[in-house]
């Protein structure tokens, strides 16, 4: 029996996620910025993998923003402010298995515009 389209997409995303996470780790000076996007909302968090702590996060659902290119730029702006407030200028970007285009690329570009390097 054929696998449903959504299950196949999720399986392939998890496969990409594991491949990326095998190479990407974050430290206190250069945390891993992990993103998650659903059809409705977008989330981002900066993680120190050595201690297993979240250093900063931005929640699009709490801000009342959707997962589109314009709203994601506002989420990136808030995330950049939080990172700068704790003294972080450089990150490791973890796209969490999502393809680097559309909303994910827009988020990354907005972070760069706000002074975060990766």
TrEMBL record:
Gene3D superfamilies: 3.30.420.100. Keywords: Ribonucleoprotein, Ribosomal protein, RNA-binding, rRNA-binding. Residues 7-22 have a biased composition (Basic residues). GO terms for biological process: translation. Residues 1-24 are annotated as: Disordered. GO terms for molecular function: 5S rRNA binding; structural constituent of ribosome. GO terms for cellular component: cytosolic large ribosomal subunit. InterPro entries: Ribosomal_L18, Ribosomal_uL18_bac-type, Ribosomal_uL18_bac/plant/anim. Part of the 50S ribosomal subunit; part of the 5S rRNA/L5/L18/L25 subcomplex. Contacts the 5S and 23S rRNAs. Belongs to the universal ribosomal protein uL18 family. NCBIfam families: L18_bact. This is one of the proteins that bind and probably mediate the attachment of the 5S RNA into the large ribosomal subunit, where it forms part of the central protuberance. This is Large ribosomal subunit protein uL18. It comes from Nitratiruptor tergarcus DSM 16512. The gene is rplR.
